[in-house]
Design a protein that fits this description.
The complex is a heterodimer. Chain A is mainly α. Chain A is 77% helix and 0% strand. Chain B has 11 helices and 15 strands. Chain B is of the alpha/beta class. Chain B folds into 2 domains: 211 residues, 3-Layer(aba) Sandwich (Rossmann fold), CATH 3.40.50.300; 64 residues, Alpha-Beta Plaits. Chain B starts with a strand and ends with a helix. A 6-stranded mixed sheet of chain B has the order 7-8-9-4-10-11, with helices on both faces. In chain B, strands 1, 2, 3, 5 and 6 form a 5-stranded antiparallel sheet that branches. Chain B is elongated. The chains are: A mainly alpha, B alpha/beta.
């Protein structure tokens, strides 16, 4: 385990001054900013009189995030993590160090999961911030009600766990192949497909739709355990396969 | 048993239909600077990647420090530093941060960072971003990374590649100092002239096969001295010398090249030419440079 902690410590240092780290905060900020703008522009139509403004805000944010932004963000973030090594031809040094290769891969996996988790925590905080702006600037929308912290955090946690599968898939693709275009294509195409086909019979089996399926199930009181387990366990399985494959492959570049 | 730092036995690796390394058996003595030479595409980088466990061989065996690499890769690699082709650096980090990444991974001490920065003379630029480094500075930082953790063996792949003459000179001086610190250096190059002054052992590889291994003097001893002769009637002079048993060859720069055994032969050639009425403008004796021998060897192998 000490190898894993060492590698993880080095991975965090590599994030200094990177776009990958900045995006962790910029992406949720962009969504929260959009929610505030929507509130000012269409607030009276979107937030019904006597309705639960906080739940409306949280569910709207969750749908936008889980169906569209999160898969695209994961795609870009993993692509950037891979490019950090490919662009600088650092695999030949990393894998020649006296560390098991799996520990280097696993450290990247943990870092990737940590970054996505951090961005979702930031999104939760910024969603509250957006609601508080509504409370002050648009008092007629109903944001003076208590903040539903439990629901907000539960939604974030469950959709985060369901996103493990796409995190693992994208990390493996971006670490395995040096092409940034390939890494982006593997994310953008399925994300568009999953957004268009969301709610169909096979949507609960589409890795890119799983966070949205879980989040939607939570808000709509529909079963979501299958999608959650598929996302979570699938993520662990793909991560283990990635560790195994990285230990076997030849480093030619 | 000789304490080989690196020993390979019948090492082989193919890529699709191409045999990149073909039955390579290297022996690198401890404390040496071993020049691993060959033209581009000869299999040097593939060999080096196999020595570092980056590529798996199809066949053969690799032993470092008299231990099989595959039996204990972590234990072996802990004692090896490497610089493969271009240095592996993160340009968005400072020089010191790049070494800190290594320190965190390998668990060395912070003072080790300062030590290697001092060795490569980069102390003053340590806190600058690597993206602002010159090529020579990057190469030196790559060498510092290779030396981090005080390895016993340094494996350097084309360490002078892309450097200007001043950078090459600087790198050469650095590498020459390393054996005094107890390091064995294994370095590859496609130019013998670049490493000639550093190496104590040479291995020449061509088409994945080892065609020479030994000391530079042993390589030199493989060829004879030659006399360079320029006369007023070059064609006739050549005929005369050939008739008398000399292997005179008409060179490109209007002179004859004649392999000889020593100064007495040179004097004899002069006498014979003058006695036959030829005017000798120039007569000098020279030994082919290592680079000439290297080129001749690799060309001969290419023709086979």
């Amino acid at each position: 385990m000490k190898h894993l902690f060492r590698a993880l410590s080095a991975e965090t240092l590599k994030l200094n001054r990177t776009l990958a780290l900045a995006l962790v905060f910029l992406t949720p900020f962009a969504l929260a900013f959009l929610e505030v703008a929507i509130g000012f522009e269409y607030g009276r139509r979107m937030y019904r009189v006597g309705g639960d403004a906080w739940m409306t805000l949280i569910s709207h944010t969750a749908m936008m995030w889980n169906l569209l932004l999160l898969p695209l963000f994961v795609t870009l973030e993993m692509g950037l993590l891979g490019a950090l090594e490919h662009n600088n031809s650092t695999w030949k040094q990393l894998f020649a160090l006296p560390l098991p290769r799996w520990s280097i891969y696993a450290a990247k996996q943990l870092l990737a999961m940590g970054l996505i988790g951090l961005s979702m925590l930031a999104l939760a905080a910024m969603t509250i911030g957006a609601g508080l702006i509504g409370r002050v600037c648009l008092p007629e929308l109903g944001f003076d009600a208590p903040i539903p912290f439990g629901m907000l955090l539960q939604n974030m946690l469950l959709s985060y766990l369901a996103a493990w599968l796409i995190i693992s898939i994208h990390l493996w693709v971006s670490l395995r192949w040096s092409s940034f275009v390939l890494a982006m294509s593997v994310g953008i195409v399925p994300t568009v497909i999953s957004a268009v086909t969301f709610g169909s019979d096979w949507s609960p089996f589409n890795p890119w739709a799983l966070p949205g399926e879980v989040s939607n199930g939570l808000f709509e009181m529909q079963p979501y355990l299958g999608a959650l387990l598929l996302g979570l366990l699938g993520g662990v399985v793909v991560a283990c396969l990635g560790c195994w494959e990285s230990s076997r492959r030849d480093v030619l570049h | 048993m000789e304490p080989w730092m690196i020993e390979t036995r019948q090492l082989t690796r193919s890529f699709k239909d191409t045999r990149a390394v073909d039955g390579l058996s290297l022996q690198v003595p401890a404390g040496s600077v071993y020049g691993f030479l060959g033209p581009n595409g000869a299999g040097k980088t593939t060999t080096i990647r196999m020595l570092l466990g980056l590529i798996h061989p199809d066949g053969g065996e690799i032993r470092l420090f008299n231990r099989r690499l595959r039996d204990d890769p972590m234990g072996v690699l802990r004692r090896v530093g490497s610089l493969v082709e271009s240095p592996s650096l993160y340009p968005h980090l400072t020089g010191r941060e790049n070494l800190e990444v290594l320190r965190r991974m390998t668990g060395g001490s912070r003072s080790e960072i300062s030590r290697v920065l001092k060795v490569v003379n980069l102390e003053n630029a340590a806190n600058r971003l690597v993206r602002n480094y010159s090529l020579g500075m990057r190469q030196r930082l790559g060498l510092a990374a290779a030396m981090f953790g005080q390895p016993e063996l340094l494996i350097l792949d084309e360490p002078t590649n892309g450097l200007d003459p001043a950078g090459i000179h600087e790198m050469r001086e650095l590498i020459c100092r390393l054996p005094a610190e107890g390091l064995t250096v294994f370095l590859s190059s496609h130019l013998l002239s670049e490493v000639e002054q550093m190496v104590t052992q040479i291995g020449i590889v061509q088409s994945g096969r080892l065609i020479f291994q030994g000391k530079p003097d042993e390589l030199k001893a493989r060829t004879r001295n030659q006399v360079i002769v320029a006369t007023d009637r070059l064609e006739e002079s050549q005929k005369l010398l050939v008739q008398q048993g000399w292997k005179a060859v008409h060179g490109q720069n209007h002179h004859l090249t004649v392999p000889v055994n020593g100064a007495a032969d040179a004097a004899l050639i002069n006498t014979r030419l003058v006695q036959a009425g030829h005017q000798v403008y120039q007569l000098s004796m020279e030994h082919p440079s290592l680079e000439d021998i290297f080129l001749k060897l690799t060309e001969e192998q290419e023709k086979k």
